[in-house]
């Protein structure tokens, strides 16, 4: 749970970094997209080490394995919790838990559902809202995020993702043994907030900029 | 003061339980919560009804016998200004005329025996699985034969104050007994006497914890919040550290 979660957070930080290349311009973003897929003139990422085009598939396999193992761990924990909780309290008051911690399971399901839509949209190109696409990756992203309600959907989706990360980041480090004192707990929670906020702002600033015509106009 | 109690009544482990409402008159604010329940039981006995069964022993907050969920929090932590056991919670923490819900710990590994009494022998079996040190007893060792650093000694003592009341399990949304298990792991892991069996212990105790049907820890933090002995939440990370280290040791494989 912790290890796969941290792999996915690391991926999100990299994904966010890539998205921000939209601000540099079409050449930069399109080259980045081709470079990842091994379609650029220089052979793409890790070219001499791996044949061109291999990296993206290895990367996808690792990510898929991380997601599957993450969900398998979550379902196992959920089942154990359900088995250990045959009856519920008549009155129940929460003292310590945060909204993020409480919504890890159902929130995880909701964000996984939207993840499928996101992949169908920008990876498979099956659910492109602005219609069929035959231009560059840059034009595709601009075309999609000119639709205001799509930006709104992404803004809400990213809230669920970042809430998941807010508890998940701290919880992963606690599971790996880093919560050594009350002070360490505060520091880890502070880092979790920072990572969640950086990811939210970093991911949403590009669609918002497209929507208002600051880029790609 | 007068209070209205809604108490969980359940005749035995097999029967269905339900909340029953009772009025308790002339409660002194200086009574402990258990003395208030004694008052209710005297009244019920006079009326010829079955008194409410609840666990209790020392009534000074050190034995770990008592423990009920009061208004939705274990040991009534939500009503008390300080961490407390049920016996050390006083009626002055409640308003006159208050309606108070009283329920037993609810967790699969803690089946209700009767009313508010639950069977916590699952905890005993976790301790039996590894919460001990195997040393040859004999004459008392020299006082300074085993030097322990101040920080480690403090940490060991903090963890050793666990009274095994089960409030952590009662408060946990996953019904996990991780704080209890981690308290014993940390207590023994900080001391020289605990080292020989350290890595075997964490595997054995965790295996027993899981076999008893407790849930897994998801680092939510309700356990440490209700703990009457303020067992630090970071003991769970100590358990995780020892568990990760134990994966690279031969012990218990």
Oligomer: heterodimer
How many helices of chain A? The count is: 8
Derived from helix and strand composition plus strand pairing, the structural class of chain A reads mainly alpha
Termini separation of chain A: 42 Å
Quickly give the CATH architecture of the largest domain in chain B.
Orthogonal Bundle
Can you give a write-up of this model?
The complex is a heterodimer of chains A (217) and B (253). Chain A has one domain. Chain A has 217 residues and is mostly helical. Chain A has helices at residues 2-19, 26-37, 54-84, 99-102, 104-122, 137-145, 148-175, 182-211. Chain B is an alpha+beta fold and 253 residues long. Chain B has helices spanning 33-46, 121-130, 150-160, 167-171, 178-189, 198-211, 222-226, 235-246; strands at residues 3-9, 18-24, 69-70, 73-74, 99-103, 112-114, 117-118. In chain B, β6 and β7 (117-118) form a beta hairpin. The mean pLDDT of chain B is 95. The chains are: A mainly alpha (217), B alpha+beta (253). The A-B interface holds A 76-77, 80-81, 83-97, 101-102, 104, 167, 170-171, 174-182, 184-185 and B 6, 8, 19, 69, 71-73, 77-78, 101, 103, 106-109, 171, 173-176, 210, 213-222, 224-226, 232-234, 236-238, 240-241, 244.
